[in-house]
Structures are given as C-alpha cells and as structure tokens.
Write a structure and sequence with these properties.
Helices cover 43% and strands 26% of the residues. The protein is α/β, with parallel strands linked by helices. Bound molecules: adenosine-5'-triphosphate. Adenosine-5'-triphosphate binds next to helix 1.
C-alpha cells in the first residue's frame, strides 16, 4: 500500500540488566520513515540515538535487550525475525553509513576487489558489470576511480576510505539508509559531498533515510521531519520547518540558542541566515 511507512517503530524500549533490576536506556520510542523521506534524529550525546539505530539494524550489543515494542520494516516486525533473517536484510534492504568507517574494509585486500565482491554478493551482476558499477560510484564520490580501486585501505586517507565505503553501500541501492553522524567524521566539504550524494540516491531510488546527528544546522538543511531525543525519549517531533520556526521543548530551544550565541541584533540576522540555509 502506498501510505504504509517504510519503517515504523512503535513504543520501543531497550533495557540493560543491572544486577537484578532492569535499567531503561530508551523508552516509548515512536518513529516513522516513509519511502523517499529524509528524517532527522537529533539529540545530545547519550540520548539514545545509536541504540535506536542499532535496534533497527539488529546490531544491538549483547548487554542490552529490547524489552518492549515493535519495529515494522516493509510491514514485517523485524524483532520477531531470526538473526539470520535480519542479517540478510543488511546491505540491500537496510544500510548504515557511520562515522566509524574503519571496519568497512578488510586491510589486506584491495578496495576494488572488496567492492566487487560486496556488489556481487547482493546481486546477480557479472564481475565486469560489478566493476563498472564500483567505478561509477567511486566517481560519484569524487574519488580517482582507478587509484582507489587498486589500493589497499591503508594506502588511502581516512576520508577516502570513508567515501569508498559510502560508494560501496550506494552501489547496493538499499531501500533504507541510516546516516550516523556522517558529517562529523568528514571535513565540511567531504561531508557535504556525501550528504549531497545520499540525497541524489534518495531522489533516484525513493529510499528512506534516517539521519542521526547532533548538528542542528545540518538537520535543518537536510531533513523533511525531525525527532528530538533527550535522555532516552523522544521529546519533540514534527516537520522540520515547524520545529525551526517554533521549537517547543527546552532541549530543542537550547540547541537552537547554541546556534546563535550572539548579541540580539546579530542574532536576528544570524537566525535569518539559519532559516535561509
Ligand atoms: N553496549 C551498551 N551497554 C550498556 N549501555 C549502553 C550501551 N550502549 C549504550 N548504552 C547506554 O545507552 C544510552 C544511550 O546511548 P547511545 O549510544 O544510544 O547514545 P547516542 O545518543 O547515540 O550518543 P552519541 O551522540 O554520543 O553517540 C547511554 O546512557 C549509554 O551509556
């Protein structure tokens, strides 16, 4: 059906066992992402953004567990699926682009070979077509295709490895992408390039994107809707335009104020600048 969300989290709670009691790390999380939509999840450090992402992907650490709720992805509650079923969603269905790209490639195999193997393991493409696809994606990431393709990860800069990792994920064209602090790990220009590219893929493939960030300016600029998390709960949500116009929760207001640490007159100009982004 057209209007069933791609992803719908209902009343999610994640707890950690401490001796005999359960400590709630996130609770009462309700969140939706439609096809083609880019949704922001914003909040201070430790508010529960990563745990939410890991729960969606089935990558929660052993020390915590989902104690309540459902995560519907394409109308199936993934929480009832086996580990194997959930792993099989990763790559083609769901993908994460994270700030921690170091584990994306095996150190002793050339980037190109790893890209081709990943593309082939998720499709029936021939080696030649997979290689072409890898080249195209590296080009889109503004990387020198030939050199990156023939390099080992340790021969490249951190930023190049991350963009190569993004290129690999993009080659799979997942239906749902989580971007976890993508712009934090990269310098401004590369962060913008990666986000622009994700945006282009979204328009081409109509995938849904959940963008995790603590950068309010990026969230304002990029997202259609926003969820604000604080201390394990969603404290504010709505269309980005509305939150930008009138943040209501104290935490959102404080984030907003931190964008504008200026005297009143300058603050007005600066606020206009933020809104104009
Ligand atoms: N493996 C774990 N075991 C126990 N507690 C955890 C674990 N991972 C996270 N937590 C706790 O859960 C809460 C939410 O953490 P989470 O990593 O989701 O925050 P975050 O919003 O992503 O923060 P950041 O922006 O710093 O990445 C924190 O109190 C954290 O200490």
């Amino acid at each position: 059906m057209m209007n069933v969300p791609l992803l719908e989290i209902h009343n999610l709670e994640i707890t950690r066992k401490i001796q005999k009691s359960e400590l709630s790390l996130i609770k009462g999380i309700n969140l939706k992402v439609a096809r083609g939509e880019i949704v922001g999840l914003i909040g201070e450090s430790g508010s529960g953004k990563s745990l939410t992402a890991k729960a969606i992907l089935g990558l929660l650490p052993e020390s915590v567990k989902v104690s309540e709720g459902s995560i519907m992805f394409k109308e199936t509650n993934v929480l009832t699926q086996s580990k194997k079923q959930r792993y099989s969603l990763l790559g083609k269905q769901m993908a994460i682009i994270s700030q921690d790209y170091r584990g994306s490639f095996t150190p002793y195999i050339k980037i190109g070979k790893q890209m081709v193997e990943t593309i082939q393991s998720h499709s029936s493409l021939s080696k030649k077509v997979a290689k072409q696809k890898a080249f195209d994606m590296l080009g889109h990431m503004d990387l020198p295709e030939e050199r990156i393709y023939n390099s080992y990860p340790f021969q490249l800069s951190g930023g190049q490895v991350q963009r190569a990792a993004v290129a690999t994920i993009m080659a799979l064209q997942p239906s749902f992408i989580i971007c976890d602090e993508v712009t934090t790990a990269l310098d401004v220009i590369n962060g913008e390039k990666v986000m622009n590219y994700i945006d282009m893929i979204r328009r081409m493939t109509n995938c849904g994107v959940l963008m995790i960030t603590h950068d309010l300016t990026q969230a304002f600029k990029r997202t259609d809707r926003l969820y604000v998390m604080s201390q394990g709960e969603i404290v504010e949500e709505g269309p980005t335009k509305e939150i930008r116009r009138l943040p209501t929760h104290a935490y959102t207001k404080s984030l907003y104020a931190s964008l504008l640490p200026l005297p009143d007159k300058q603050r007005e100009t600066s606020a206009r600048r933020v809104v104009d982004l």
